[in-house]
Amino acid sequence: MKPTLAQLVERRTVVGAVILRSLVRIRQGSSVRLYLTCIRNTLEAAMCLQNFPCQEVERHNKPEVEMKTSPELLLNPVVICRNEAEKCLIETSINSLRISLKVKQADELENILTKKFLRFLSMRAEAFEVLRRKPVQGYDISFLITNYHCEEMQKHKLIDFIVQFMEDIDKEISELKLSVNTRGRLVATEFLKQFI
Questions:
Q1: How far apart are CA 78 and CA 68, in angstroms?
Q2: Which residue of 12, 60, 90, 166 is 20 to 30 Å from 172, comparing CA positions?
Q3: What predicted TM-score, i.e. pTM, was given to this entire model?
């Protein structure tokens, strides 16, 4: 049986929509890849940290990016944005590096899930060593890497950890959102069964 013109147009529209969705996913995937690659390259360039003793107190070594006692020891901060809702601030000094992340929050549910999840991680900051308990204002989570971290751990492993963390947090929040939506649907279905 020969398909009608309306069926051909409908099929073509459906195929076009599928291709368009695939292209959008590829573009979004490459956008994430470009964003993470840019952060990785910036971290590789910024992670040339060296020991620098405190100029005021003998035998003390404080992260200059936190203390900001000498402006000549600080480099210009770098902000890498994927969009308005998702960005990364990299602040560098001679002996420390602070990375602050703003995680994508598309709706109110993602906002709540992100805050709860990141608060959970911040409460366990000592297990991560480089995670700060309190993020920089305007960001969701911050990491502080000192020259001691670079000496104890390998630099490329630290960079891999930060980038992997950024990938995983997006996946984790998406899975949590899916789980909450599924559970909400089940609860609503059970509730509505009473009226049928």
A1: 16
A2: 90
A3: 0.78
